[in-house]
Amino acid sequence: MKPYFSFQWHITDECDQRCKHCYIFAENTGKCPDRMTRKQMEAVLKNCRDFCEKFGRQPYFYLTGGDPILHPEFWTLMEMFKAEQIPFTIMGNPFHLTDEVCQRLHDYGCVRYQLSIDGIEKTHDWFRKPGSYKTTLEKVTMLNKAGIRSIIMTTVSGKNIDEVPAIIDAVVAAGAKVYAFARYCPTSEERENSISPERYHKLLEDCDKIFQQYEAAGCETYFNRKDHLWTLYDYEMGRFQIPEDAEPDMIYGGCNCGNGHLTILPTGEVYACRRVQNSRVGNVFTDRLAQLWTGRMEAYRDYDKFKKCTHCKLLAWCRGCPAVASSTSGGDFYAADPQCWAEQIEGLLTL
Question: What are the record keywords, sorted (predicted)?
Answer without folding.
Answer: 4Fe-4S, Iron, Iron-sulfur, Metal-binding, S-adenosyl-L-methionine
